[in-house]
Every structure is written in structure tokens, then in C-alpha cells.
């Protein structure tokens, strides 16, 4: 929350100044469409709470027109219900909610704001920048016809569009655009030429949707529709309703932190939270495992029951990390087996779960815009008969791991409205594989994000001293001492002349173990320290690393630390203490360690593949590529897989650390301020969701949905 400005209109509207005191205001809060009462507490960010003497604060949820619902006193009913519940449970939920809000605020305050586009060169500009409902807006459009990739081919330019994500009854265009008077161009006297047209905004428009074309005839000519996503501009001052929202249902078999085996569980939770924060309705449907962590579920309760294929299904509801979750518990015991995976009948259990999930949506007659499924385990929900799916919904399929269930993945690719995988480069790398090749035009690469609240050096409980992009030198120095004491390593010199090079990885061929070994020897031979956390499932590989650890320990006493195990708290400390992180993967669909490292001021040295290429930009070789993403270089990278290839990147990193202190300090500070969380990926998903819903509704209207 922020202090309420002295000129804020609420001070007059609600007579706030008449009672004295300091007033604070929060950002808009998403209200679930079924909510009757908003329950909340306040925190000072340091573990102290105002919860109305243990009763919490409650406010009735109004109708769409802002009026209160009639007859029922929902607040009184809510307070009465809370009084019947156990006090400690209420306090625990309130404390957990307060901690999450506190972490979120601190985490996001550390990032540098993205610079706005220069109106003198931007492809699309509106004047005013935020159009006003009920008033005209000037749209400016720039294109370079000398560019072979220019989408429009004739000398004419037309703009066509609508409002409120194409749901408004009124559209506009095709309207011809003309070369703008140079004196009227946004961006000043040096602005590039542009075409312009004036469009009138309806009073009930919240979003302007449009594309460009080079002919007035419908269905002919060439289009610039931003690769099918269309252009969208938010509008202020609209009357009635609100911004268009979607209802997204994720069908998945993993969800962190309650039922996680791999990275899919993290994505399901983090992406759902991020889409909710964009103002949309999101729900996860998950099996109710007997082995899941029930303590991490808020408000778990038995809500309903139904029958699927003759089996009684108990329906449980609860929230996980602020995400509404529906848990399905079939009475045939499919998910009362003490594990998520590992039985010979996994495909049978998960296929039945998909049938149950779709039946539940049918029983509740749910209006769903997007059904989003994850990996082979929920693929059957995508390629089910169309009549089993909610009417007119789009279907989205995400490939997290291509190593399992390729036949199911291929069938899901065929039927999905579109599909995603975990980074743009990885999408290109797998586009010609068997399960994907025939429908590769549907595949979109969207990088995963990291949980910026868990991975935050400013609040990390694993560190003796927290730090941020302004205080990282002291923070990392304390972390180095903390790590040295734990692993019995020599304390690094106070002048920061000795870099600590870290590795946090499973020691497999995929992770480039031959290059990891070479780089660790190279580091200590050049005066650096090394630390490694990880283990090898292959006994031969593990023996090689055991021998290396012994050899380096004998030849360079105190300059190395090896922990061949899984230890997440220790990984936090290694990221904080290390100056450089090695990630020389042979292939890496997304990779999280390089993004976590940057969050902690640890500069990554990576092989240029998959998600590593999409997140790490070499300080010498990738300045232009980074600028295209609105970023500055943040690490060192290399191609190839020979020893001299990784030396090319590692030697440059160590040289900058040792002899270019000013450049190194700037690099660390800049890198720590880059946001590798879920904000940008969520924006990308939302745009593709909208594109998919538009396509699905068109297909449904044309009778193109085959069963």
C-alpha cells in the first residue's frame, strides 16, 4: 500500500480528511466472481498485523454496478462463520497472506523499470498515449517498405479494428491512413515519417483492437496483425462494465508446493498467479492425492460430488498460493496410492482424471474461455471429443518435457488451438521433431519465469545478511564467509581479487559434465575458487566427480567445496556467494539456474542453447540482440562443446572480475535489476490466450469444431 496523495479525489468523495489520521491506498485487488465478502488484514511488513482484534476485516462485494447485493448480510454471515472456525487456523491463513503480500512488494520494488518506447521511432503510437473513451484518438503507424520483411506491399495503408477484445458491437474501418504532417508527428522534429488516421472511441470502450492492411477489400491483400495477436491499446474513462476478462482453467497433475515432482508444478502455480494478477479468472483442476501437502492449502473443504463413468467423484475446493484449486477425488482410489508418478498404471489414472475434469466442467455448465493442459499427463483433455469440452473454448497445450508420452503430445498438438513450450529458442530446436513437426506452426516459445519472492536476496532466510542491487558487495561478502565456514573453504581475500565460480546442477550429459570438469580445473589453476552442488545418477559419472573433488582438494587446499546431494537451502547460499555460475548445458529447454543466479548478482557463463540463449546476453557479442529485448548484456556465453569453447567465455568473465572492477560492478548491479519473473511471460500468454479465444469463437460460429 502507498500513502494516499493529498489531492486524491477519494479524500473529498469519502470525507477522509474530516477524521484525521494517515490514509493509505492499495493497488486494485482481483475479486473472484463468486465472492460475496472480501476478507483482509493489514501488515507493517515486519511481521506485525492489524486483524481487528482477531476478527479480521470484511467488506461486502458489490454488484457490477457498484451497489451492494440485496437482502443477505454477507459480512455478518462471514463473521459468524469465522467465529465457528478454529482461531489458530484463521491466524495462520492471515499470517501466510500477509507474508506473501510483503514478499511480493519487496521483490518487485527491486527491478529497474522498462524504458518506454521512443515515440519518434515506435512502430505504433497513439495521441493521446492513453486514449479517452468518448473522444477521438490519432493512430500513427510506421513501416519501412525497403525492408524485405515489411508485411504491407502496396502504397495504401488501412486500419481496421474494434473494441473490448473484438467483443464490442461496433467496429471501425477499413479506414485509409495518410502520410502525417511532419509537424504533427509524435516524438519531435527528428521523428520518423508515419501514416495516420483519426478514430473515434466509443464511450463504453475499454480496449482498442486493430490491425493494418494494404487494401480496403475484405479478405484480400496483405496484413500486419502483429503475427495474429493484433494491436491493442488500453483506454481510460470508459463507462459501464470493466476491462474484458477471461476464465482460464488449468488441468494438470502437478502443482507446487503441494504436489510437485518437476518443473511443471512450479509453472502451473506461478503462471496461474501471474494471470490472476493481470485481472483474469484462473482455476486449477488437480487430482486430490493422499500424499500432497495439505498444510499448504488454504480453506480446503468438501464442496460437491458427481459421477464419472460410474465412479463417485468427491470435489474439494481450496486455495494454493492465492490460486483457486478444484481437487477431484475419485472413490476408485486412483490417487490414494502414496505417489504422483511411478506406478505402471500412470497413463490409466491420468486419463481417467482428464475425463473427470471435463465432466466436472460439464456438470457445472462452466463458461470457460481457455482450457490449458500440461504435458502428456493431461493431454487427453485436449484431444477429447469436442462435445466434452466447454462450448466455444480455446485449448492450449504446454510441453514441459518432450521425453515422455510423445504419442499423446502429438495428438494434443493436432487438436489444440495453440501450443507452447518453455522458451523461444527451444521451440525452434524441437519444431521438426516427430510429435510436433506436422503442427509446428501452432508452437509458441514462452520462457518460464522464476519465483521472484522465493528467490530474493533481500528477504532470503538462508542468508545471514540480506542485500539488493545497491548493497550487494557487503551482502555477497557475508555470504562468502558463511559458505566458507560451512564447506571449510579458505576465506577469500578482502580485496575481492579471487572469484568464486559455482555450479548448481544434476551431473548428467545434458548439463555438459565434461565442460563443467574442465572449467573447474581451469578456475582453480587461474587462482579462483570453485563450489559445486549436485549429484550424478550415473555411478561412473559420480566416481569421476568424486576423483576430481579429491584431486582439486589435494592440489589446491581450501579453494573448493563439493556437495554431492540435493540441498535447496545450500543452493540459495551458493547463488549469493558465487561471482560466476557455470551452465554449459548441451541442451536446456528453459533453465532456471541462470535466472536465479542473476537475481543474486551472480554472473552466468552459459552455452548458447535453448532458454539459456533467450535469457543470457553476452557482454561482448550480444549487445544488439539484448537491445532488441529492451535489455543490456548480463553474462558470458559460447557456442560449441569443446574445452576451448567454454574457456572463451569463462576466461573473459574472470578477466573482467579481476581487472575491470568498475565494469564488473556495473554488470552485477544492472543484472540484479532485470526482472526474470513471470510478469513478461504472463503478458505473452494473455495475448496468445486472446488470440486463441478469437480463433475458437470464429471456428465455433462457422461450425468448424469437429467432434
UniProtKB/TrEMBL annotation:
> Sorted alphabetically, which InterPro entries does this protein's record hold?
CBM25 (IPR005085), Glyco_trans_1 (IPR001296), GS/SS (IPR011835), Ig-like_fold (IPR013783), Starch_synth_cat_dom (IPR013534)
The GO biological-process annotations, alphabetized, read as: starch biosynthetic process
The UniProt keywords, alphabetically, are:
Glycosyltransferase, Starch biosynthesis, Transferase
Which reactions is this enzyme annotated as catalysing?
Answer: [(1->4)-alpha-D-glucosyl](n) + ADP-alpha-D-glucose = [(1->4)-alpha-D-glucosyl](n+1) + ADP + H(+)
Spell out the molecular function terms from Gene Ontology. alpha-1,4-glucan glucosyltransferase (ADP-glucose donor) activity; alpha-1,4-glucan glucosyltransferase (UDP-glucose donor) activity; starch binding
Which pathway is recorded for this entry?
Glycan biosynthesis; starch biosynthesis
The source's superkingdom equals Eukaryota
The question of whether Membrane is a record keyword is answered with no
Q: Which residues form a coiled coil?
A: none
* Cross-referenced Pfam families: CBM53, Glyco_transf_5, Glycos_transf_1
User: What EC designation does it have?
Assistant: 2.4.1.21
Class in the EC hierarchy, top level = transferase
Q: CDD domains, alphabetically?
A: GT5_Glycogen_synthase_DULL1-like
Domain annotation Carbohydrate binding module family: ranges: 7-62, 134-236
UniProt xrefs under HAMAP family:
Glycogen_synth
Family named by the database record: Belongs to the glycosyltransferase 1 family. Bacterial/plant glycogen synthase subfamily.
- The name under which this protein is listed is starch synthase
What gene does the UniProt entry assign to this protein?
Answer: SSIIIC
Amino acid at each position: 500500500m502507498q500513502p494516499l496523495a493529498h489531492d486524491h479525489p477519494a479524500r473529498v468523495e469519502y470525507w477522509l480528511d474530516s477524521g484525521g489520521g494517515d490514509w493509505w491506498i492499495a493497488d486494485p485487488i482481483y475479486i473472484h466472481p463468486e465472492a460475496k465478502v472480501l476478507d483482509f488484514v493489514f501488515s507493517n511488513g515486519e511481521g506485525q498485523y492489524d486483524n481487528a482484534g482477531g476478527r479480521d476485516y470484511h467488506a461486502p462485494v458489490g454488484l457490477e454496478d457498484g451497489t451492494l447485493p440485496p437482502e443477505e448480510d454477507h459480512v455478518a454471515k462471514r463473521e459468524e462463520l469465522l467465529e465457528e472456525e478454529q482461531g489458530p487456523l484463521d491466524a495462520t491463513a492471515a499470517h501466510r497472506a500477509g507474508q506473501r503480500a510483503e514478499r511480493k512488494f519487496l521483490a518487485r520494488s527491486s527491478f529497474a523499470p522498462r524504458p518506454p518506447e521512443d515515440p519518434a521511432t515506435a512502430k505504433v503510437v497513439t495521441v493521446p498515449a492513453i486514449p479517452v473513451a468518448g473522444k477521438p484518438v490519432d493512430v500513427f503507424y510506421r513501416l519501412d517498405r525497403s525492408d524485405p520483411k515489411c508485411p504491407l506491399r502496396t502504397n495504401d495503408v488501412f486500419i481496421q479494428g474494434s473494441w473490448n477484445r473484438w467483443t464490442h458491437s461496433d467496429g471501425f474501418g477499413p479506414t485509409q491512413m495518410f502520410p502525417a504532417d511532419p509537424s504533427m508527428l509524435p516524438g519531435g522534429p527528428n521523428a520518423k515519417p508515419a501514416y495516420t488516421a483519426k478514430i473515434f472511441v466509443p464511450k463504453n470502450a475499454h480496449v482498442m483492437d486493430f490491425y493494418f492492411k494494404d487494401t480496403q477489400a475484405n479478405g484480400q491483400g496483405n496484413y500486419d496483425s502483429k503475427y495474429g495477436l493484433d494491436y491493442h491499446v488500453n483506454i481510460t474513462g470508459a463507462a459501464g462494465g470493466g476491462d474484458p476478462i477471461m476464465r482460464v482453467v488449468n488441468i494438470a497433475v502437478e502443482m507446487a508446493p503441494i504436489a510437485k515432482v518437476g518443473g511443471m508444478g512450479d509453472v502451473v502455480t506461478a503462471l496461474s498467479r501471474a494471470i490472476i494478477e493481470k485481472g483474469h479468472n484462473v482455476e486449477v483442476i488437480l487430482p486430490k492425492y493422499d500424499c500432497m501437502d495439505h498444510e499448504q492449502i488454504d480453506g480446503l473443504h468438501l464442496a460437491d460430488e458427481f459421477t464419472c463413468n460410474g465412479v463417485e467423484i468427491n470435489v474439494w475446493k481450496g486455495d494454493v498460493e492465492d490460486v483457486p484449486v478444484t481437487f477431484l477425488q475419485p472413490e476408485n482410489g486412483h490417487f490414494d496410492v502414496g505417489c504422483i508418478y511411478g506406478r505402471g498404471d500412470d497413463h490409466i489414472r491420468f486419463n481417467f482424471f482428464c475425463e473427470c475434469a471435463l465432466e466436472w466442467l460439464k456438470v457445472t455448465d462452466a463458461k470457460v474461455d481457455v482450457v490449458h493442459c500440461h504435458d502428456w499427463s493431461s493431454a487427453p483433455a485436449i484431444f477429447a471429443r469436442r462435445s466434452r469440452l466447454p462450448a466455444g473454448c480455446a485449448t492450449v497445450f504446454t510441453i514441459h518435457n518432450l521425453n515422455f508420452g510423445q504419442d499423446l503430445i502429438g495428438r494434443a498438438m493436432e487438436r489444440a488451438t495453440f501450443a507452447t513450450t518453455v522458451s523461444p529458442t527451444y521451440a525452434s530446436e524441437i519444431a521438426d521433431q516427430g510429435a510436433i513437426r506436422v503442427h509446428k506452426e501452432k508452437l509458441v516459445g514462452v520462457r518460464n519465469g522464476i519465483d521472484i519472492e522465493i528467490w530474493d536476496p533481500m528477504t532470503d532466510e538462508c542468508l545471514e545478511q540480506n542485500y539488493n542491487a545497491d548493497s550487494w558487495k557487503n551482502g555477497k561478502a557475508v555470504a562468502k564467509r558463511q559458505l566458507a565456514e560451512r564447506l571449510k573453504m579458505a576465506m577469500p581475500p578482502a580485496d575481492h581479487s579471487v572469484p568464486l565460480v559455482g555450479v548448481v546442477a544434476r551431473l548428467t550429459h545434458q548439463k555438459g559434465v565434461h565442460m563443467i570438469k574442465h572449467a573447474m580445473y581451469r578456475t582453480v589453476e587461474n587462482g579462483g575458487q570453485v563450489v559445486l552442488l549436485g549429484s550424478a545418477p550415473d555411478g561412473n559419472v559420480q566416481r569421476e566427480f568424486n576423483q576430481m573433488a579429491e584431486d582439486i582438494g589435494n592440489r589446491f587446499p581450501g579453494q573448493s567445496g563439493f556437495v554431492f546431494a540435493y540441498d535447496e537451502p545450500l543452493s540459495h547460499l551458493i547463488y549469493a556467494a558465487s561471482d560466476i555460475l557455470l551452465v554449459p548445458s548441451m541442451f536446456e529447454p528453459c533453465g532456471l539456474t541462470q535466472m536465479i543466479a542473476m537475481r543474486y548478482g551472480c554472473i552466468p557463463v552459459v552455452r548458447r542453447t535453448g532458454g539459456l540463449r533467450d535469457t543470457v546476453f553476452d557482454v561482448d557479442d550480444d549487445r544488439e540482440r539484448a537491445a532488441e529485448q529492451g535489455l543490456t548484456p548480463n553474462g558470458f556465453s559460447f557456442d560449441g562443446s569443446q574445452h576451448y569453447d567454454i574457456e572463451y567465455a569463462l576466461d573473459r568473465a574472470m578477466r573482467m572480475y579481476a581487472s575491470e572492477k568498475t565494469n564488473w560492478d556495473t554488470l552485477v548491479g544492472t543484472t540484479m535489476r532485470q526482472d526474470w519473473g513471470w510478469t513478461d511471460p504472463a503478458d505473452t500468454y494473455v495475448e496468445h490466450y486472446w488470440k486463441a479465444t478469437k480463433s475458437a469463437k470464429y471456428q465455433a460460429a462457422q461450425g468448424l469444431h469437429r467432434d
